[in-house]
Amino acid sequence: MDKPTLRLLIRAKLADGRLPQDHIPRMWGGPGSGETCDGCGEIVTKTQMLMEGLSKDGGPTLPASSSTSPAFTCGTSSGK
C-alpha cells in the first residue's frame, strides 16, 4: 500500500475509534506470526517485524507491522 493511501486509512481509523488517539506508553516488537496489522489490515509474516503496544486506557494490544508503525506518527501528528 502506498504511503498516502496508508496515511488516509490510518487517519480514518483514528477518527472512527478503530485506533486509539491517546499516548501509547509501552511498545515492544519481535517477528510476526500471522497477526493482522491494525494499521493496514495486512498479515504480519515471520520475516516482518511486529510492533505492539498497549493504549493508555489499558485497551487491547495494537499489532502493527514495522512498515506501518512510522505511519502512525505521520497520521497522528500531521494537521493537528
Topology (elements, then pairings):
Elements: H1 3-15, E1 26-31, E2 35-36, E3 43-44, E4 49-54, E5 64-65, H2 69-77
Antiparallel strand pairs: 1-4, 2-3, 4-5
Helix pairs in contact: 1-2
Describe the protein.
The protein is an alpha+beta fold and 80 residues long. It has one domain (3-77). It contains 2 helices and 5 strands. The protein has helices at 3-15, 69-77, and strands spanning 26-31, 35-36, 43-44, 49-54, 64-65. A hairpin with a 6-residue loop joins strand 2 (35-36) and strand 3. The protein starts with a helix and ends with a helix.
Count helical runs: 2
Q: Which stretches are poorly predicted, pLDDT < 50 over at least 5 residues? A: 71-80
- Total count of domains: 1
Q: Looking at the structure, what is the overall shape?
A: flat
Q: What's the alpha carbon Rg, rounded to whole Å?
A: 12 Å
* Mean pLDDT figure: 74
Q: What portion of residues belong to β-strands?
A: 15-25%
**Class by SSE composition:** alpha+beta
Question: Helix-strand pattern, N to C?
Answer: HEEEEEH
**Strands side by side in the biggest sheet:** 1-4-5
Overall strand count: 5
User: What can be said about the biggest beta sheet?
Assistant: 3 strands, antiparallel
What oligomerization state is this entry in?
single chain
For the termini, the CA-CA separation is 24 Å
Question: What share of the residues lie within helices?
Answer: 25-40%
Characteristic key phrases:
80 residues, alpha+beta, 2 helices, 5 strands, 28% helix, 22% strand, flat, disordered C terminus
What is the gist of this entry?
The protein has helices at residues 3-15, 69-77, and strands spanning 26-31, 35-36, 43-44, 49-54, 64-65. With 80 residues, the chain is an alpha+beta fold.
